[in-house]
Amino acid sequence: xxxxxxxxxxxxxxxxxxxxxxxxxxxxxxxxxxxxxxxxxxxxxxxxxxxxxxxxxxxxxxxxxxxxxxxxxxxxxxxxxxxxxxxxxxxxxxxxxxxxxxxxxxxxxxxxxxxxxxxxxxxxxxxxxxxxxxxxxxxxxxxxxxxxxxxxxxxxxxxxxxxxxxxxxxxxxxxxxxxxxxxxxxxxxxxxxxxxxxxxxxxxxxxxxxxxxxxxxxxxxxxxxxxxxxxxxxxxxxxxxxxxxxx
Length: 247
Ligand code: CA
Description:
Elements lengths: L6 E5 L3 H13 L3 E5 L2 H11 L3 E4 L8 H8 L7 E5 L4 H10 L3 E4 L4 H12 L24 E5 L5 E4 L4 E4 L2 E3 L3 H12 L4 E2 L1 H9 L8 H14 L9 E4 L3 E4 L3
Parallel strand pairs: 1-2, 1-3, 3-4, 4-5
Antiparallel strand pairs: 6-7, 7-8, 8-9, 10-12, 11-12
Helix pairs in contact: 2-3, 6-7, 6-8, 7-8
The structure holds calcium ion.
């Protein structure tokens, strides 16, 4: 029986680099679709079922930032930027646009491999992750449904089904938002530092710009808070990190 290959988009305008990324990724067993410009990539995103997209920022025509902004609503797949632009503003802009992760050029092949593995892994429902030391009832499957807010039209996160609903309305989450909410929900009531969220949601070896966490928390709040400027569910604990409160 053939297994469904993991499908990646490589959006990169440098022919040599795109070809070598393709070779590397195909040798790792991924199915690779190449695009050299953002316009043609954008045209195939809705139907291609990509599991992850690798995106360069400096492209001819539409740039990578615009591509990410426009592709983000079309898919929950992680978007990983590979760019020579390594300034903090560029990284934050790419994350704000909707990217999930960032790799700077020149990149190390092992680093690319590790990042992709981390971003493609499914969240694990077990007690051997961030739930260590937690009361066992937080780590078992039976408690996979979290009522985050009881207000009219309760906000319910069903982690097993990967579903967030407000009353009858389903709220769409990206893969990274889902992972972030999972970690926060299973640790509800506890303060989680930015570095611990970074470690559990992204991966341990990430270069460690904790703003990646802040950007994703902002994104999550826009989706689940009634008033994102006065959050009640994902609250900031000044100087320490974030805490998920259930009402
Ligand atoms: Ca380029």
